[in-house]
Amino acid sequence: MLEIKDLHASINGKEILRGIDLTIRDGEVHALMGQNGAGKSTLSNVLVGHPAYEVTRGSITFNGKDLLALSPEDRAHEGIFLSFQTPVEIPGVSMVNFMRTAVNERRKYLHLPALSAAEFLKLMREKRAVVELDSKLANRSVNEGFSGGEKKRNEIFQMVMLEPTFAILDETDSGLDVDALRIVAEGFNKLRTPQTSAMVITHYQRLLDYLKPDTVHVLLGGRIVKTGGPELAQEIERRGFDWIKKEQANEE
């Protein structure tokens, strides 16, 4: 599904990613861990086409297409979804209108007929139940006045509505209490199929306990320096990242 080769990227002239190599196949969930400033969010922003980031070297292939040649809108239509660390508020834009436009634009891109108002509202009710999103929140402006946990739950609701093939969860667990974390994780898990994949960016083991990733990567200094199974996240939870830094220093 996703193949990244020797990816270098910078922002405002400062190099952040220094040679990322990563392959994520259909149906796989990969966790990306690392200290602040390691480049985790930079990688997610590059994948969705954030204009502030410049790719200076390397390639990204998504389902056989050159991802770097696609606009941010077309990347979303192709099935890439990013759940932000801090979801933005959009005053004056109702969730209903926002989601109906987003869903129908993707359907148009895929050469599918637009959903009627009745069809869309039926779909919205079904998907809202998946993440236990209050109907009052769904009828308000996008994220306006939402708590941190409500914003994150709303992000997962949007993901369930759009049914992406590749989801990027960028520290979705930050600021969530145990119950909200469970609901968000269960909503994500209900979306999983053998054809969908995800990259989960987190500092903590607790989200991974729910999502059960296939592979865990550690990103330090703009490079993936260690890869393992779920047990790697458990070891990081116990020991932090210093032991990995020491390993890297010894190898160098």
Feature tags:
single chain, 252 residues, alpha/beta, four-stranded antiparallel beta sheet
Question: Can you tell me about this structure?
Answer:
The protein is an alpha/beta fold. The chain is built from 10 helices and 12 strands. The chain has helices at about 40-50, 70-80, 95-110, 115-130, 135-140, 150-160, 180-190, 205-210, 230-240, 240-250; strands spanning about 1-10, 15-25, 30-35, 55-60, 65, 80-85, 90-95, 140, 165-170, 195-200, 215-220, 225-230. A 6-stranded mixed β-sheet has the order 6-9-10-3-11-12, sandwiched between helices. Helix 7 (about 180-190) links the parallel strand 9 (about 165-170) and strand 10 (about 195-200). It starts with a strand and ends with a helix.
